[in-house]
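Sample pair:
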Amino acid sequence: MALTIAISPAPTPRAEGGPVGFVARTPSPGKLNADRCDWLARRIPGIDEQARCGQSSESHGRLKEERSKVKNEMWVLKCGF
């Protein structure tokens, strides 16, 4: 009893799809808000300078809160990314 196995030819390679063109990158979110990010970045040293001066604990707490809000806004706007 002979066993015969049919062997089919290997598939021929074919190009699928078209050529890949230039992929445009969207600007980073920080660049979209560059003016606001620059203003916020300049604001931080001013707040720090005010905090280093003799302040009451109430004023110091207000500056700490203001600095935190500025840093949070910078994070939301993705400044520096």
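The radius of gyration is 31 Å.
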